[in-house]
Amino acid sequence: MTVGEIFAKASRSRLLQDPFAAKVWEMVQSDGLFHQSPDQLRDLRRQMTRESLLFFKHHSNYYSELFDRLDIDPKFAEIEDLAKLAVPSDMLRGEGHSPFLIPEVEPEGESFQSSGTTGRAPVKLYRSPLDLAIMVKANASLFEYVYGDVLDQGKGLALFMAAPELRHRLSFVAFVELALESKGIELIYGMDLQEGMEGDKPWQKLEPNRKRIMHFLKSKAEPKLFFTAPAGVYMLAKRNQELTWSKYIVQKLATGSPPVKLGKGGAIVTGGGTKGFVDLPPYDQIVSLSRKHFTASTKTGEPRPAPFMDVLGMTETLTALIDHYGVMEKVPHPLSEVFLLDPRTFKPLQGEGKEGLLCVFNPFTTSWLECFYPGDMMSSKASDRFYGKEFMFRRRLTIKEGWELQRACGGSLEEMMRTRGGGA
Amino acid sequence: MIEPIYFGGSIESVERDLGDEKVREVSEANLMQLLKEGKALQAELCDLPLDERLQVIDWLGEVWSERIQAGELAGAKEELGRATGYPAKLIDLEFALVPKVLSGEEIQRNLDSSLVGGKRSLERFLSIDGSEAFRHMPAGPSFIISSGNSVIPTLIPTTISLVTGNFTVLKPSISNFRAVAEVFAGLRELTAKSPAAHLMARSLCISYFGHDSPGLDAALSRAPFGVVNFWGGEPGRGSVAAKLAQNPAHPRFFVNGPLTGVAIVGATGDDEKVARGLALNMVLYEQQLCSSPTMGIYIGNYEQALAFASMVRSHLESIGSSYPVDPSDDALFVTNSARRVLVLKGSKVLQSDSTQNPWTLAISKGSSNLDSVVASFPSFNVHGRRRFLELVVVGSVEAAAATVERVPGMAAYKGIDKVQTIGLAVPLDQREEALWALASTGAYRIVPVEDMFMRSAVEPYDGIALASLFTYAVYERNRPLPLEGIF
C-alpha cells in the first residue's frame, strides 16, 4: 500500500465512529503535543491510558475478562496496572498476536515480522490501515522533533541500506518508506535481497547495489538522509578508511566521496543500536569513525558533525524511541507510556538511573492493547524536554536470563548484511 | 576436593577436572579389585544375622543425630543449600529425617513387605506352605548412581542394598556428595564397635564419577556388577543403558526415572487441612521431589476452586515465609514472565509479592495453560518451577484422570516420565470412583495431599519393591508337584 492508500482506508475506518479512536486519530495529527510540558503530557497519558483500556473493554471480551482477572478498573488505571498488562514479546511469535486483536479489527492492513533465524517462528504483528496511518503520522512527528527541524516537502534524497522487499516485512523499513513518502522525499534502497537454499534451509542475504549507492553519493540533492543498521554505516566508513591512495582517487573522481557529503540538514539514521551483532564496536566509536567519512551542515550551511540518530523500534511497537547522538537520549512519542520494571518484581521502577525492563504502552494503537516488553534493559534520566525523561539502551536480555527472543528489525538487517543467516 | 570414601582400606584414586572444580574418583584398577573382594564380602554379609545388619544402620542414624546436635554438619548443610537452592530450614528438616530413614525398624517393615517370605528370607530359606520356600540372596555387587535433589533418596537404595547383603558402590551427585558422605562417615567410628559394622563399612565404597569419566565408562561397560540402579533421566539414563549393554556381566539395570506429583482436590474435600498440606508440599524441597505436587486438579466449579486457592494462598504465605529462599534474578524474571503469560492465556494468578517466598497459584479453567508458558520461557520447565502450582478446574473425576494422563506428554513436563504420586483429597462418596479412575493413569502412589512427600516403610518404589531388585530369589521345593492326570 502507498501512504495515500493507507490514509484513504484509514479515513474510512468504522472504528473512527468510536469517540476514543477518533480522538486518537486527531491527536496524532496535532503538532502541539511536543510543546506541552512533561506534567501536562503525564496527565494526558494517564487520561489516554484509562480511555484506551475502556475502549478495549468495550470492544473485546478478551480484554474485559483480562481486566477482571487482574482486578483492573480502567477508570482508575495507573502505570502499575499497565505493568500487569505488558505482554512478553515472545508471545507474539507466529500467530501469537491474533488472540490479542479485537474482533472488529479491520482487514486490508499489513503484517510485519522480526527475524526468524533462531529456528522458531518470528514475532509477527498485524497492522490495520488505521494503525498504519497512525504509525506514519506519529513517527514522522517524533522523527522531526528529534531531528530538530521539519523535513521540507519534496526536498532531499534518502538512501536506505535495505532491500525494497523488506518494506513489507520489517516495520523499521516500512515506517521509513511511508514517512518519507508522506514527505515526498525520494528513497533509494541500497541493497538487493538474495535468496537461496542451503540443503533444505532457506537463506537470505543483503548485497550492496553499487549503482544505486553511487546515485546517492553523486546526487546534489539536500538534505541527504542515510538510513541503515549500524553495521551498514560502520562498514562503509571502514571501507573508506582502508582505501588505498589510488582507490581513494578513483572513488573521489567517480562519486565525489569520501567524505560523503550529506549536505544541509543531512543526517544518518541507524536502526536498533548495535544490539544485533556482538562484533561491532560500541556505538560511539561507530559515530566517531563515521563522522570522518560523512559530513553535514546545518540548514543554513554551517558545517557540523554529521548528526546521528538511532531508532529503537520493534516489530511490536507502532512508534519508536529515537535519540540524537550528543543532543538527546532516546525519547518516545509524547503519547507513548514508556516505563521500566524491576525484573525481580515486575513493579515499576521509581527514580532515575536504575537499569530496568523496558515496557511500552501505546494508547493510540486501536487493533490491540499494545502494551509489551521486548526484552531490552534500559535506564532513564531526568530531562527538561517534553517527556521529562530520556532513555538509554543498556542491553538485551540473554537466553541465559530466560529471554529467547534475540532479534528485532535492526538486528535482522545487520544479520542479513553479514551472513547467510537471515531466514524468512 | 571430592574424594572417594572407603573404610575397608586404602583406596587408589585419579584426579579429574570437571571445569569448575577438580574431583578424585576411584581408579579403574582399584574398582575392579574392590569388586573382586566384594563377592567374598557379600558371602560374609549373608552369614551375618539380619538383626546385626539392621543394628549397624540404627547406630549410623544415632551417630548422625549426635553429630547434628554437636553442630558438626554446618558445612555440609551450607554446601547442600548452595547446590540445590533449598532454604536452610529445609536442609535442617532433611537432615532431621535422616535417622528415620536409617531406622532398623523401618527397614525391617520394608523388607517384610518387599520379599516373598519376609525379612528372614535374607538369612535362610523360609517356607510359605511347608513344601515351598524362598531365600533372597544379594544380586550385587551393586552400583547406585543416585539423584542429586536431596540426601534421603540416595540413602534409601544404599541402605537397602547394604542390608540385603550387597557390596555397594555409590555414586552420589556432585550436589549432594558431601552430605551423603557425611552420613556414611559414621561407619568409620562404628567399625570398632562391632564386627558387623566393620564388615558393612568394608562393603561400601562412595565415589564421584564425571559423566564422561573413563572410570565410569569402565564401571558400566566392564565391571562385574550384578545390579545397577540409576536415579535420573536423560541423557544420563540412555548413556548408562548403552554402556551396560556391552557389559559381559549383564548387570540387572533398573531406573528410577524422573517423576512428578499431582494433587487432586474435590469440592467439599477441600478443607483447610488440605489447603495447608498442599502449600506445605509446594514449599518442601522446592517441588523437586518425584512426589512433589507440580500440578493441581480441582474437581468442582471455578468459584469453588478460587475459594480453595485463596486458602492455599494464605498457607503459602505463612509456610513459605518460614522457608525463605534467595532466587537468582533470572529465576525471578522468568517466574514473573510465566505469571504474565498465564494471565494473558486466561488463568487467574495469585502470587506472592515477596522475592524470598515467590509462590504462584494459577487457576485455569478446563485445561492447563502451562505449555504456552514453556513455549516462550523454556527455562520455566518442571525443574525451574519453584513454589508454583497450576490448579486446573475440571467437572468430573474422569476429566481429572484424563488430565493426569496428559501430564507426561505436555511440553511443560518435558523430561518427566510420568506421574508418580497423586495427592488425593476428594469427598468420601467420590473416593471409590476416583481410585478406580486413577489406578489406570500410570501413577504409582495415591496418598493424602497433606503428606505427599512422606513414604511409608512398606511402600514400593515407583511401582516395584526395592529390596527385590537388589536380591534374587532362590526357590526351594521339598516335594514334587502333583502331576496326576497330566502324565
SSE topology:
The complex is a heterodimer of chains A (424) and B (487).
Chain A: H1 3-11, H2 19-28, H3 38-59, H4 61-69, H5 79-85, E1 87-88, E2 110-113, E3 124-127, H6 129-147, E4 157-160, H7 171-183, E5 186-189, E6 191-198, E7 201-208, H8 210-218, E8 224-228, H9 230-241, H10 245-255, E9 260-264, E10 267-271, H11 283-291, E11 294-297, E12 303-305, E13 308-312, E14 321-324, E15 328-331, E16 337-341, E17 356-362, E18 370-373, E19 376-382, E20 389-396, H12 409-418
Parallel strand pairs in A: 1-18, 4-5, 4-8, 8-10, 9-11, 10-13
Antiparallel strand pairs in A: 2-3, 6-7, 11-12, 13-14, 14-15, 16-17, 17-18, 17-19, 19-20
Helix pairs in contact in A: 1-6, 3-4, 6-7, 9-11
Chain B: E1 5-6, E2 13-17, E3 22-26, H1 28-47, H2 50-69, H3 74-84, H4 88-101, H5 104-114, E4 126-127, E5 132-138, E6 142-145, H6 152-163, E7 168-171, H7 177-190, H8 195-202, E8 204-206, H9 214-221, E9 227-231, H10 236-244, E10 252-256, E11 259-266, H11 272-283, E12 293-299, H12 302-321, H13 329-344, E13 348-351, E14 360-365, H14 370-376, E15 388-394, H15 397-406, E16 418-425, H16 428-439, E17 445-448, H17 466-469, E18 471-477
Low-pLDDT runs of 5+ residues of chain A are: 420-424
Oligomer: heterodimer
**Arrangement of strands in the largest sheet of chain B:** 13-14-15-12-11-16-17
Distance between the termini of chain A: 21 Å
State the fourth-level CATH superfamily of the largest domain in chain B: Aldehyde Dehydrogenase, Chain A, domain 1
- The helix content of chain A, as a percent range, equals 25-40%
Largest sheet of chain A: 7 strands, mixed
Largest interface: A-B, 22 and 25 residues
Give the DSSP E fraction of chain B (strand runs of 2 or more residues): 15-25%
Q: Which residues of chain B form runs of ≥5 with pLDDT under 50?
A: none
Report the mean per-residue pLDDT of chain B as an integer: 93
- Supply the number of structural domains of chain B: 2
